[in-house]
Amino acid sequence: MSEKVVKKGNEALCEAALRAGCRFFAGYPITPQTTATEYLSWRMKEVGGVFVQAESELAAINMIAGSAHAGCRSMTATSGPGLSLMTETLSVMAGTRLPTVIVDIQRAGAGIGGIQGAQGDFYMVTKTLGHGGLQGLVYAPDTIQESVDIIYEAWDIAEKYRTPVFIMTDGTMGQMMEAVEIPDFKDAPDLSDQPYVAGKRKDGRAKRLITDSPWFGSKGNANDNMEYFYAEYEKMYESWEENEVRYEEYMIDEAEYLIIAWGTSARVAKTSVKHLRNQGIKVGLLRPITLAPFPKKQIAAIDKNKIKAVLTVEMTIPSQFHHEVTRYLDKDIKVDTYRRGGGNMVLDEEIEEAVKKLM
Amino acid sequence: MESVYQRSKALSAASTSFCPGCMHSTAVKLICEVSEELGIQDDLVIMAPIGCAVYLGVFVQFDSFGAPHGRPAATGTGFKRSNPDVPLILYQGDGDCASIGIAETLHAANRGEGFTVIMINNQVYGMTGGQAAPTTLPGQKTTTSQYGKITEDMGDVIKLAEIIASFNAPKYVTRQSLHTPKNILAAKKAIKKALEIQINEGGYSYVELMSSCPTNWKMDPKDTPKYMEEVVLKEFPVGDLKG
Predict the structure, then answer these.
(1) Residue A207 and residue B61 in contact, taking contact as beta carbons nearer than 8 Å
(2) Rounded to an integer, what distance in angstroms lies between the CA atom of residue A174 and that of residue A7?
(3) Less packed terminus of chain B by CB within 10 Å, N or C?
(4) Chains A, B: CB contacts under 8 A, how many?
(5) Could you give the number of structural domains in chain A?
(6) Of A190, A225, A243, which closes a domain?
């Protein structure tokens, strides 16, 4: 049975991961991710899974890769500095086509930065996983409930495409508490017949030669095989744009102004939309739920005859998401951005002022 | 006629990519033979390193997977914890295990992860063309220590087996060599013991195998055993350190 509880964002996400069949977690403590690691340190054992407090994020990400090679649903959670350390293995996972789940609970700034919530990992996670230009699927919930719902199906999607799946929240969403419906436990599938899973070779099956780079195939040498398979991966990424794009349209009926934002920024912007609508200003919100694939077509389809201006909102400076939106937005539509950096929260009243400035 | 010796069935038909005279091929052969003797040739999983043995999975008939340079001990941790019944070997070089991956190696050993590390110590980075490693001997010439390794500059020799043997958790830690038939037989016994421990009682085992790199040592293969006996093994003595 599902249950309705009031839970911290990080803990609700982790509990839903267990309900989804995740039985291996490795993580290294980093604010604002620590409550996730602490929660799973005891809770994972209760459900018969494995928790490892890794010696570093380098080790953590490789541990979950190893668990995936054993056919287990595995995950890690981290924040910016830890994610930087993980990038080499993210690249490896994208190359191996290894289904894993990585939760990025974002904090502010580059380097050490700050520990408050922010959205500065957008480019890093959505553009390419580490070196080499390969990609993963990236989800960005704006409520704890949505993060629970997404992680509950994250491995199903990861296994369908054989790809790492990212869930991007932030320090704000990780620490806040909200009423949330946690789904029932479901069984993980038997993955022992998957080509990326190593194990005992029963019934004389052939050995599996699992490599992170597709050197082996019918195309002659290693270079030609890599070229061929990477082009196949590209087709898969393109198919995601057709089949996996998710977004929310919020109060867009008869909208003349549109806010485009994701995650916590979008959550705050919803308050602004309500306030502005109460003032008779026809504004709506478009919120990408998948950041990769990005809702390019939906943004390109915004009609200049209906929408007078667009405001992007994000919690990072220099702009990232804003530039991604303007790549696809009709150039005839007036556009501006409101953002806060340094770990500062975007404020509903400041969003409202920014919309009014566009009028 | 009685057959007294044959090529291990755990070796694939493919020839290895190792240089002539390199002792990697001996190490791989020993692992294959031991797997047959223990009856685990269909069960054993082996991790291929970044290094000269990167194509290891081609040469053997085991399931194999890899890890980024230095990370096998972490990847192996995740695999073995999720599938404890599968015997697992981490086949690593000295650069992988003792330099870029020393943190993962030591923490996995200290946790007593239930796999066997086979570390090939040839005192250089072989695949990248013979640069100095943490195992390079003082005064040894490499492509990054062209006048001889200066320990004040590059650090002294890291003796990984001795460090690992200082931990409580490892069940078996040994250093063996592949430079004479007698040593090869002892190395084979060590690999067998390590796997028996892993299978029968569980726990961590580490087998360091002293090896040659005639290509990067710029030495005739037939001269390498003498050099190893007279110079290398003085710095890296063979024998069991724990268990």
Answers:
(1) yes
(2) 10
(3) N
(4) 125
(5) 3
(6) A243
Please tell me which residue of chain B has the smallest CA distance to A208.
B63
The answer to whether domain B24-242 has CATH 3.40.50.970 is: yes
The tens digit of pLDDT for each residue in B110-166 reads 999 999 999 999 999 999 999 999 999 999 999 999 999 999 999 999 999 999 999
The SS3 assignment for B75 reads helix
List, as ranges, residues 25-44 from A with C-beta within 8 Å of B.
Answer: 26
How many angstroms separate the CA atoms of B100 and A155, rounded?
A: 31
Would you tell me how many other CB atoms lie within 10 Å of the CB of residue A238?
11
pLDDT digits (tens, 9 = 90+) for A19-72: 999 999 999 999 999 999 999 999 999 999 999 999 999 999 999 999 999 999
Per the DSSP assignment, residues forming a β-bridge with B133 are: none
Cβ neighbours around A289 below 10 Å, total:
19
Report ipTM (2 d.p.): 0.97
Determine the residue of chain B that is closest to A26 in CA distance.
B78
How many CB atoms lie under 10 A from the CB of residue A302? Answer: 19
Residue A284, pLDDT > 80, answer: yes
DSSP code of residue A253? T
Query: What CATH code is carried by the domain that includes residue A147?
Result: 3.40.50.970
Domain that holds residue A272: 249-357
Residue type, A356: K
User: Does B59 lie at the interface with A, CB-CB under 8 angstroms?
Assistant: no
pLDDT of residue A1: 73
Task: Kindly state whether residues A268 and A298 are assigned to the same domain.
Answer: yes
* CB interface of A with B, residues 202-241, below 8 Å: 202, 204, 207-212
In terms of domains, do A26 and A130 share one? Answer: yes
Query: How far is residue B167 from each of residues A327, B51, B62, B71, B162, measured CA to CA in Å?
Result: 56, 27, 30, 20, 9
Same domain? A94 vs A146:
yes
Q: What's residue A63's pLDDT?
A: 98
Helix (H, G, I), strand (E, B) or coil at A241: helix
| Alpha carbons A352 and B63: distance in angstroms, whole number | 59
